[in-house]
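Supplementary notes for students who missed Thursday's class. We covered one full example, reproduced here. Read the sequence, then the structure, then the short commentary at the end.
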Amino acid sequence: MTATERFLKYITFDTESDEKSASVPSTEKQKVLGACLARELADLGLENPHMDQQGYVYGWLPATPGREDDPVVALIAHMDTAPRVSGKDVKARVVEYTGGDIVLNEEQGIVMGAAAFPDLAENLGKHLIVTDGTTLLGADDKAGIAEIFSALEYLMNHPELAHGRAAVCITPDEEIGRGADHLDLDKLGAAYGYTVDGGPLGLLEYENFNAAGAEVVIHGVNIHPGEGKNKMKNACLLAAEFIAMMPPAETPAHTEGYEGFYHLCTMAGDEGEARMEWIIRDHDREKFEARKDFVRRVGRYLDDKYGDGTVEVKVEDSYQNMKEKILPHPEILERARAAFRGAGVEPVDWAIRGGTDGAKLSFLGLPCPNLSTGGFHYHGVYEYIPQESLEKMTEVLVNLLTGIDGNIKRENFEKNC
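Structure (token representation):
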């Protein structure tokens, strides 16, 4: 089965995670795909394929003779999709892209315009898997799963390609920041790993944001508006004042590259109480700490202005920049670069404006940079991935596991895959 065929199969499963759920996994429907993946690993002939009670799928590719002493490499991807846009009843189709706009849904007038999405021009002549404009696609990260499984199948079918032992883990709940929380590193038994959860083909990511969340609760005083003078404290208006004090140019809509930001995710309330949820991001640790302190200082200022107990600010760290844990192991990055180049892809070092399971895993003791899947515009209805990238990343992963640059001829790979 090709990576494309696998991918089109996996996206038929609704695996949306739920950040408001305290269960593990956060949604039981993730385990439906998990059970399917465990059976598939068994059919491929991997060792001890199984899904544990918390929805994590494991399997091990045995080493070929003479490579038993190689360090065990882990390949990791996640099965859940982001909760903001539906991943149910995905209606995907393949478009041979010859230029111009792509009409995703003629009936609803949903168009992916070439002007709004200039990356389309980079994919002329390719076969793009797109949505119908009403759901996300699920390439984040079912593309990663498809590529990993297709690479495993290729190696099982080609025992002449020498490789060390490889561990595979497919996690739930990555999109809500919990994907690494219950991954059993002792059971995995790997020296280092790679998450296959990135964007356009060729990206090698080993830097990510330092991340925190801030919950702001504003306690107002509600009273009949007819007699509110000098008595009412409208919590919604105080929330608006809090927002107005945040730097307007330091939001996701105004930043790029290594620039950090403050992002208001949700807000709700009435005169008596208002709540806001913010996320705080920066690659630089010192700047990150300063951002967290700024949010607290805004809260303290308004609390002093309107009375003790009016404004509560709670800031909690989410994950850290994995760069400091990856750079001491340059051989991990060089192995990935060689794997890309062996497949005819020039790697590009890229700083993630987000996070991955690999960030947490790196700080738990498993150095774990992130590799591309080939997709674009994750988490939304304009998400797409070229078929060619799915198959090329399969080749990259075969090179990665064999650990030899150009281990296989590209034309032979394409013929036998």
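Commentary. The longest helix spans residues 285-306. Residues 405-417 have pLDDT under 50 and may be disordered. If anything here is unclear, bring it to office hours.
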